[in-house]
Design goal:
CATH class of the largest domain: Alpha Beta
Shape: elongated
CATH architecture of the largest domain: 2-Layer Sandwich
CATH topology of the largest domain: BirA Bifunctional Protein, domain 2
Strand content: 25-35%
Number of strands: 40
Structural class: alpha+beta
Number of helices: 19
Largest sheet: 8 strands, mixed
Radius of gyration: 39 Å
Number of domains: 6
CATH superfamily of the largest domain: Bira Bifunctional Protein, Domain 2
C-alpha cells in the first residue's frame, strides 16, 4: 500500500520526523515499510506558465513558438512541439536551469529560434501516467485556470512528496486508511492526532427522498444520503487529483474522486447510484435469489448465488454489495440525482462473492478484511462535506440509516494481566507505563485490581481479541529493541524425537531412498471423489466432516482417505505427458464418530504411496516398456517393515478393500492387527482417476508405532554356514503364495526345528509351458542351525517334507 507522507503530515504531528525515520519507527512496530522514495526525484525550477500566444514555427511544420508568462517582468519565448498547445493554457513550465527526471533544461535554439525553457507533459515532470486519464498523457499537461502564474508547480502538484510503500499483514485492516495510520503513528511517536472524527455539515431539513430496507443479517449497517448534482462539468480539485495519484488511484470524475478520496482517508468504501434509476426510490439490501443475474459496471453479466449480498430496488438488483455496482444504476452525464451508500457488509460474504465473480477492487479488499462500522456515518458525512465544498452537489434531506443492532460491532473488552505480560515479554514494565501505552493506542483501561485489568478495544482494531494480542501491543509500542537480552536460566535439555516422530522419519528416509517423491496434498476433499473407491453407500469413509467456510467448491469436507489426493497429483502429471512415477505422502485422515459433529473426530496418521505408469528408465530385454507391479510395492513394504523390525512378525493375507483389484492385493497383519494394505487398484478405481494401471499402499502409522520397539538389539554374526534351496512348483491359480509359505514353514518346523531362517517368493509365472488355470510359484528357503552345520541330508529331508505337504494339501508338484 502506498502512503503519502505529506497527507499523513496533515493529520498527525510529524514535526522533526523525516520520512526515513518514520519508516524505521513503523517497521520496528510491526508495520513493515518496504521502500521510502520521493514521488519525483531531482525536480526543481518548475513553475506555472500561461501561454499568452502561440504561432507556428516559420521553419518547422510541427513546432510552435509560444510566448509564456511565468510571473517575470518579460515573457519567455519557448519553442514547443506538443500537438495540444494553445494560447490561454496554464501549463507546467521548466525554466532554464531547471532539473527534471529526464535531465537539466538548457537554453537552446530550435530551427533558429532560441527557446528559454520547456512546456512540460505529465510524463516529463514525473507524474504517474499509468493512473492518469489517457487525454492527460498525450501532449502538455494542462493545469486548472485558477493556478497562480509563476507559482511553484512542484508544490502545486505535490511533486515534492515522499511515498512510503507499506507491506501490511492481513490482520491490520485498520492501517488501510489514513485515519488508522494516524492513530498508529500517534501511538508510536507519542504525537498529537489532528484527524477530525466529527464532520461538520449543514443538516438539511425535510424528509429524505430515498427509503432503505435492510432484510439480511449479512449487513450490520446501511447509511444512504440523497444528493442533487449542481455542477458536473468541473473536475475535482487539482490537490485531490494529485493526492489520489500519489496513493495509486486514477482520477475519474468529481463524485468518483471524492468517494475514492474518502475511502483512502477513512477506510470506508462508498458507492453512488443514479437515484432516478432506483425504482420507487427504495433501496433493498438483501441476499441474491438463486440464479439471479446482474450486469455489472464492466458490462459483464454475472450470475449470483444465494449467499451473495445484493443492493436492489423492489424490482431488480442494482449492485453486488462491496464488490461492484450495476450498469442499470450507473451515474452518467445526464444524472442529476444520486444516492451515496456507506455500509458495513459481512466480510466473508464479500470475499466469496469477489472470488466467485472474479472481481477485485480496493473497496472489496477493505470489506473482506473488515471495516470499522463506527466510520460508516463519518465517511458519508465527509463525502457530503467535500461535494458541497466543491459546489458539485447538495444534500437532499438527511442521512437514512438502517441497523441490525444485534449484529452491530459491539465494544470488545479483553482481560489483561500486568504480571503475565512482563513474564511473557521478559520485561519489568510498570503498570503505569503499560496503561500509558494503552491510552496512546486509544484503548480504555479499567483496573479490577492493580495488576488485573479489563481493556476495551476500539472497533477499528479487529485484530485484537485475546490477552496475547494486548501483550503484543505492549511489546511493539514499548519497543522490542528496548527489551534487554538475557541468557537462558535454569536447566536445559537436548530435544529428542519421540517414537512417533522417529517412525515417520524412517518412512520418509526409506521411501525417498527407494526413489519415491514426497508430496503434500490438501486435507480438504469433496464427497463425490469417494465414488471412485467403489464404496458401499453406507460406508464409514463416506461420513465426512463438512467445512463451515470451504476454500473452494471442490474442497468442502475433511478427507477420510488419502488415495483421491495422491491420484489427483498423479493424474495432473499424466495429463502433462509424465510417463510414470512413484509418490508418497504422510498425513492425517479425519473420521467422525457421527454427524453432525458432537465430539472430537478420530485423526489417524498414515503414510500412503501411489505407483503409476511406466518404471522410470526401465526396459525389458525384449525392448518392451516395464510397468510397476504388485511385487515392486511388496518389496518396498517389506523393506520398511524390516527397517522397523516388524518383518519377522508380519503376516500377509488377502485384502477386502473395494478399491483394490481382487486377488492382487494384500493386508499386512502384525500381532493380530491389520496395520495396512497394498496392491493394484481396481480397474474402475484407476479409470475414475484417469490413471490406467496403478498400485497403492496405505499404512496406519499410529498402529505401527504401538507395535514397534526402537531399542537396539545386536544379533551376533552366525557361526555356521547356511544352506539354500529354491523350489518352483505348479499349483492352481487360486492358491495364494502366502498359503504355500505358511505350510512350508510348519512342515520344516516339524522335522528340523528352529532352522528355517528366511523364506520368500521370488517369482510367479503364468503362461507358456504352464497349464491353463495353473501358475508357477518360485520360492527361496534358507536353512541355518545355531549350534552346528546342517548336512545336505537334513536339509533334503526338510524339503521333501515340504513337497509332500504341498502335494497333499494343494496338489502342487515341482515344475519340470
Amino acid at each position: 500500500m502506498r502512503l503519502s507522507y505529506q497527507w499523513l503530515e496533515e493529520v498527525v504531528d510529524l514535526e522533526g520526523v523525516s520520512p526515513e525515520e518514520l519508516a524505521e519507527k513503523l517497521t520496528n512496530a510491526g508495520i513493515a515499510v518496504d521502500a521510502v522514495e520521493p514521488r519525483v526525484s531531482e525536480i526543481k525550477g518548475l513553475v506555472v506558465g500561461l501561454v499568452v500566444d502561440c504561432a507556428p514555427h516559420p521553419d518547422a511544420d510541427r513546432l510552435n513558438v509560444c510566448r509564456v508568462d511565468v510571473g517575470q517582468e518579460e515573457l519567455l519565448t519557448i519553442v514547443c512541439g506538443a500537438p495540444n498547445v494553445a494560447a490561454g493554457q496554464r501549463v507546467p513550465t521548466a525554466l532554464v536551469g531547471a532539473k527534471l527526471p529526464g535531465g537539466k533544461i538548457k537554453k537552446a535554439k530550435l530551427r533558429g529560434i532560441a527557446s528559454e525553457g520547456m512546456l512540460c507533459s505529465a510524463e516529463e515532470i514525473g507524474l504517474e501516467i499509468k493512473w492518469l486519464p489517457k487525454e492527460q498523457t498525450t501532449g502538455l499537461y494542462i493545469l486548472p485556470e485558477d493556478a497562480e502564474i509563476g507559482a511553484d508547480a512542484v508544490k502545486l502538484l505535490c511533486l515534492d512528496d515522499t511515498i512510503l510503500e507499506l507491506d501490511l499483514t492481513p490482520n491490520r485492516a485498520d492501517c488501510m486508511s489514513l485515519r488508522g495510520l494516524a492513530y498508529e503513528v500517534s501511538a508510536i511517536l507519542e504525537r498529537r492526532v489532528m484527524f477530525k472524527e466529527d464532520v461538520e455539515v449543514e443538516q438539511k431539513p425535510g424528509p429524505a427522498p430515498v427509503t432503505v430496507e435492510l432484510t439480511t443479517a449479512l449487513c450490520s449497517r446501511y447509511d444512504a444520503l440523497a444528493m442533487h448534482l449542481e455542477d458536473t462539468s468541473k473536475s475535482s480539485p487539482l490537490w485531490m487529483q494529485m493526492r489520489l495519484l500519489a496513493m495509486g488511484v486514477r482520477p475519474i470524475s468529481t463524485v468518483v474522486d471524492v468517494t475514492n478520496y474518502v475511502m483512502l482517508e477513512w477506510g470506508q468504501p462508498l458507492h453512488a447510484f443514479d437515484l432516478d434509476e432506483v425504482h420507487n426510490q427504495t433501496i433493498v439490501v438483501r441476499q441474491a435469489r438463486e440464479n439471479e443475474q446482474i450486469v455489472t459496471l464492466d458490462g459483464m453479466t454475472r450470475e449470483l448465488t444465494a449467499d451473495t449480498i445484493v443492493i436492489s430496488d423492489p424490482d431488480r438488483a442494482i449492485g453486488v454489495a462491496g464488490v461492484m455496482g450495476g450498469e442499470n444504476s450507473e451515474i452518467t452525464d445526464g444524472t442529476t440525482e444520486i444516492v451515496i451508500e456507506s455500509a458495513a457488509f459481512n466480510a466473508p460474504s464479500v470475499r466469496r462473492a469477489g472470488q466467485r465473480l472474479g472481481l477485485h477492487s480496493e473497496a472489496q479488499q477493505r470489506f473482506e478484511k473488515g471495516i470499522d462500522s463506527a466510520a460508516v456515518r463519518g465517511a458519508l458525512l465527509r463525502t457530503q462535506q467535500l461535494l458541497e465544498q466543491f459546489g458539485t452537489a447538495a444534500a437532499v434531506g438527511s442521512v437514512v440509516s438502517e441497523l441490525n443492532t444485534d449484529r452491530e460491532n459491539a465494544s470488545v473488552s479483553v482481560g489483561f494481566s500486568v504480571d503475565r505480560c512482563n513474564q511473557l515479554l521478559g520485561t519489568a514494565i510498570s503498570a503505569d507505563d503499560m496503561e500509558s501505552i494503552f491510552r496512546r493506542l486509544r484503548f480504555e483501561v479499567q483496573r479490577s485490581t492493580p495488576t488485573s485489568w479489563h481493556v476495551s478495544i476500539p472497533s477499528r482494531r479487529k485484530d485484537i481479541g485475546i490477552e496475547a494480542d494486548l501483550i503484543e501491543e505492549i511489546g511493539r509500542i514499548y519497543g522490542l529493541d528496548e527489551i534487554v537480552s538475557t541468557l537462558v536460566q535454569g536447566a536445559t535439555t537436548v530435544g529428542v524425537r519421540n517414537k512417533a516422530q522417529q517412525v515417520r522419519r524412517r518412512v520418509q528416509r526409506l521411501l525417498s531412498g527407494s526413489g519415491m517423491s514426497e508430496v503434500l496434498t490438501y486435507t480438504f476433499s469433496h464427497p463425490d471423489k469417494m465414488d471412485a473407491l467403489r464404496l458401499d453407500e453406507h460406508s464409514d469413509l463416506r461420513r465426512m466432516i463438512p467445512l463451515l467456510r470451504p476454500i473452494s467448491e471442490e474442497r468442502t469436507v475433511l478427507r477420510t482417505h488419502m488415495l483421491p489426493g495422491l491420484a489427483e497429483v498423479a493424474a495432473y502429471n499424466v495429463a502433462r505427458h509424465v510417463l510414470g512415477g512413484r509418490i508418497f505422502e504422510i498425513g492425517r485422515v479425519y473420521r467422525p464418530l457421527r454427524l453432525p459433529l458432537r465430539e472430537q473426530p478420530t485423526e489417524t496418521m498414515q503414510w500412503a504411496g501411489l505407483w503409476f505408469g511406466q518404471k522410470e528408465g526401465a526396459n525389458s530385454s525384449k525392448g518392451k516398456v516395464e510397468h510397476y507391479d504388485f511385487f515392486d510395492v511388496k518389496g518396498i513394504v517389506e523393506a520398511w517393515l524390516e527397517d522397523l523390525g516388524l518383518l519377522s512378525v508380519a503376516a500377509f493375507q488377502r485384502g477386502q478393500s473395494p478399491w483394490f483389484h481382487p486377488g492382487r492385493n494384500a493386508e499386512v497383519v502384525v500381532e493380530g492387527m491389520v496395520v495396512g494394505s497394498f496392491g493394484e487398484l481396481h480397474p474402475e478405481t484407476a479409470g475414475a482417476f484417469d490413471l490406467g494401471t496403478a498400485l497403492y499402499a496405505e499404512f496406519q502409522l499410529d498402529v505401527v508405532v504401538e507395535k514397534v520397539s526402537l531399542d537396539w538389539n545386536v544379533t551376533p554374526l552366525p557361526k555356521f554356514p547356511s544352506s539354500r534351496r529354491d523350489l518352483a512348483v505348479v499349483v492352481a491359480q487360486e492358491v495364494e503364495a502366502g498359503e504355500l509359505l505358511s505350510a512350508a514353514s510348519a512342515a520344516v518346523e516339524a522335522v528340523l526345528p528352529d532352522t528355517l531362517e528366511t523364506y520368500r517368493v521370488f517369482d510367479v509365472y503364468m503362461g507358456e509351458h504352464v497349464p491353463d488355470g495353473m501358475k508357477s510359484v518360485a520360492m527361496a528357503f534358507v536353512f541355518r542351525a545355531k549350534d552346528r552345520t546342517l548336512t545336505d541330508e537334513e536339509v533334503d529331508e526338510a524339503v521333501q517334507s515340504v513337497l509332500e505337504v504341498w502335494n497333499r494339501e494343494y496338489h502342487a508338484h515341482l515344475r519340470t
